[in-house]
Amino acid sequence: MILSPLGALAPLARAPVDDEVPQSRVWFRYGQWKYDVDDVIHNNFGVTVFRRLPLANSELSITGAYLTLSCAACPSWVSGGVSLQSTLWQGGAEEEPFASVGLRTDVGGAHYRGETQTTSASAASELVVGVDHSFIRQSRLSATLSPGFGMGRIALVDGIHNGYRPTLGAALAWTFRSGLGLNIGMQRIIIAGGPIQWGAGLGWGRP
Asked: CA–CA separation, 163 vs 97, rounded Å?
């Protein structure tokens, strides 16, 4: 799960889909993790594009990502994923704190670029609880907390391995009226000894 965009990149804080709220449509993302002090740093780079769907409060996103390790001889991973997020409930007004509850579904996969033909896949569903509020100079602050549950599958030379784990993500975004957005976040695949993924993002694009 941590090799696909679901676990390799920290989540993005998104306000409920609304024509009156500025949203960044293209995000350039970076994240890193390592298991312990003896592990090398895993650097993740990705691009995510959001598209509003002709469905009530639904949004589709597509991500392409690249994972490198901070050692010269370590091969990289390439990955991709698709997410669909729908708002189930929302309350408040643009001038007030705006709360929402949504559901996000993620699917993704990754391919190892080393000598072995290793692949992995993941799927997860998360409950997305968010708060959005107007800020200085017509900008907005958005914060989300997203507990969920997912499954991962990896094909190694010794066979195929599957696992099921809870997940927890959190993010904070500052979005300007121009469509420029800044995001920081964390993601955790909850397993004993598992790392926390920390990340940041830069977004652009008006609705």
From this structure: 38
DSSP 8-state secondary structure symbol assigned to residue 137: G
The residue type found at 148 is G
| The pair of three-digit structure tokens given for residue 12, joined into one six-digit string | 């993005």
Token representation of residue 146: 């997203």
> Residue 60 sits in which domain range?
5-202
pLDDT in tens, 168-196: 999 999 999 888 999 999 999 998 888 88
pLDDT (tens digit, 9 = 90+) per residue, 45-88? Answer: 999 999 988 876 899 999 999 988 767 667 788 999 999 999 99
Residue 120 included in any domain: yes
CATH number for the domain spanning 25: value is 2.40.128.100
For 100-110, letters b (16+ CB in 10 Å) and e give bebbbebbbbb
pTM of the model: 0.89
Tokens coding 64: 């392409």
How many domains does one find in the chain? 1
Closest CA to 46 of 85, 76, 9: 9
